[in-house]
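Dear support,

I submitted the protein below through the web form. The confirmation email said the job was done, but the results page showed an empty box. After a refresh the structure appeared. I'm attaching both so you can tell me whether what I see now is the final result or a partial one.
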Amino acid sequence: MFNEDSSNELEYKPRPVKDILKEMKNLSELMIDLAYYSALYGDVTLAEEVFKLEKRIDVFQMLLSMQVALATRSKSAAEKMVSIYAIAAATNRISDAAADIARMTVKKIKIPRDFALSVYGEEDFVTALKVPKELADYTLKALFEKSGVVIDVLTVRRGAKIFLEPSISFRLKAGDTIVVRGTFSSVVKFSKLFGIDIAEREKISIEKYTPIINSLISFKRISRVCVDLAYVAVLTRSEDIAKKVQELEEYTDMLLDRVSEEILKEHELSLKERLGGLWIAIASEDIADAAAEMVEPLLKGLEPHPLITDIIGEADERISVIEADEEDHGKTLKELGYSERGLSILAVKRESEWYVLPEENFEVRNGDILIVKYSAELEPLVEQLEHEEDREEIIEEIQEEEWEEE
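What the results page shows now:
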C-alpha cells in the first residue's frame, strides 16, 4: 500500500488489485450516504469525515494505477483491465462529487436540522461523534448496553486508519471518531454518552429550504440506484442493464434542470444558499455520470475482468442472485418479504428478459433469477436462501449467456 509521511510523500508497497478496488467501492458508496446526510442535517463534522475519505480514495487510485500497469502482460489482459480502470475512475469521481456535496455544508449552505427532519423523517439519522477519554477501552457492545440502544456504527476513524462497519467487540480509543446511524431518538440517547446533546431542536418554521431538501432526497435516491445498477451490469455482463444506467443518467440531466429552476425561483433563499443548492444538484448529477462511465467499456464490447465478480460479491454492500423455486411461483416481491429482511431487489431475469427495478407487486415465476443487494452481515441469510456455490454457478451462466448475445 501507500504510506504517507508528514511531508506528504507516498511510499509504494504492493497490494492486490482486488483488495484496493474493493476498498474503493466500499468507501465511495459510504461517502455518498455521508455526504447527503451532512447536507441534509447541516452536520459539519460528518462533512469533514467525507473529506478524509476522499483523500484516502485518491491514494488508492494512484496505487491501483501502478498495480494494474505492472500486472498487464498481454492484449487480452489489457482489454479486461479497462473495466478495472473504469470502476476505479468512477469510484474516484463519485468520491469527488460526494466531497463537493459535503463541502457545501461547510461553505455555502446549512439547512436547519429540525426542518430537514420534519421533511425527510426521523427514521434514518446519521452523525459523527468523537470518543472522549472517559469512553476509552469500551467495546461497542458495552456502549450499546450502557446507553440502552443498539445502532449502526458505519465507520471508526483512528488517525489515518478507517475501520468500516466494525463488530460489536471493537474496542474504542480516546480520540476515535465514529459515524453512527439509527432513528433520531436512538442516536440522541447514544450521543449523550459522549457528552453531546443533539436533541436541542432548532426553532424554525420557514419552508424556504423545501426545494433544496426535495432535490437532495431525489438525487440521493437516483444516484444510488445508478451506481447499484452499474455494478449489476458489470457483474452480469448485461447490455440491457448498462443501457438502463445510461437512461437513468439522462433522467438525472432533466432532473438537474428542473431542480435548478426550483432553487433559483425560491427568492427567500440567500444568494449563497441558492448557489450551494445548485452546486449540490450538479455534484449529484456527477455521481450518475460516474455510474454511466462504469458501464461504458461493457457497451463498447470489452469484457469485464473476472476479479470484478469477486469484488462485488465480497464488498460491504454486495450484489448476488437468488433463484425462485416452485414455492415462490405466483408470489409478489412484497409477499416474498425480502425487503423486510434487508434485501433490495434490483432486477429480475426471466429467461432472456430483464425486469429492472421491479415494483413490489411484480409476480415471480419458478426459475426467475432475482438480483439482490444486501449488506455483508446478511450473508448468512442469503446463504440460507441460495448456497454460495449455486450463486456462483448461476452468475457464471448469466455472464456466458449475456456475453454470447453481445
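Response: this is the final, complete result; the empty box was a page-load delay. The beta strands are 2-4, 10-12, 125-130, 152-158, 161-164, 177-182, 317-323, 344-350, 353-356, 369-375.
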